[in-house]
Amino acid sequence: MRLQRKKLSTSGRGYLDGQMLIAMPTIQDERFARSVIYVCAHSTEGAMGIVVNHPVANISFAELLVQLEVIPAADLIQLPPQAGAIKVLKGGPVETSRGFVLHTSDFFIQDSTLPIDEGICLTATLDILKAIARGIGPANAVLALGYAGWGAGQLESEIQENGWLHCAADPDLIFGGDAETKYERALRKIGITPAMLSSEAGHA
């Protein structure tokens, strides 16, 4: 995937690479309700992002490493503590059997890692999982199963129809451990409380 790097214009229209999308109450689809999405790529051709606040309930990062045969089960006891702390997220409804690692830019694999913005990268190969298991991976990372995707013009239309708000990203919203509060924290970044949204939902 190629990124077309453009900054938001002063009118608020433009590309949202490296921004966070925050779902409005009008989005009832359970895959996206109350979701916070980090936008990895956005261009005239469409958009791709990772939901960062919907954890997978039934599997840990360590268990996933064994399932993917990155390490044998016998080696789990040797995993570095940082690897065991990595969150596994429901990244979105597209390609849910694939893993996508959002991580800090202190780790980079030539021809595999996609730099996004403000020190954040995306890598979708097993090599990064092997590096994390050996303790030589990025300082911060989350593993998402699947991603959210939009066709040409689709995200822009959803934003115009008040489906999404957006705010600047920060490492805590992406990598922070308390996924349950990320939605409220993202809203607070732009001066909004959930109570304000529910009272205004349905009004132009």
Give a written overview of the molecule:
The chain folds into two domains: 19-54 and 149-200, VC0467-like (3-Layer(aba) Sandwich), CATH 3.40.1740.10; 61-145, 3-Layer(aba) Sandwich (VC0467-like). It has seven helices and nine strands; from the N terminus they run E-E-E-H-H-E-E-E-E-H-E-H-E-H-H-H. It has helices at 61-67, 81-84, 126-133, 154-160, 171-175, 182-189, 194-200; strands spanning 19-23, 36-43, 46-51, 88-90, 94-104, 113-117, 120-123, 141-150, 164-168. Strands 1, 2, 3, 4, 5, 6, 7, 8 and 9 form a nine-stranded mixed sheet that branches. The chain starts with 18 loop residues before the first strand and ends with a helix.
Features:
9 strands, 204 residues, alpha+beta, 7 helices, VC0467-like, globular, 2 domains, nine-stranded mixed beta sheet, disordered N terminus, 23% helix
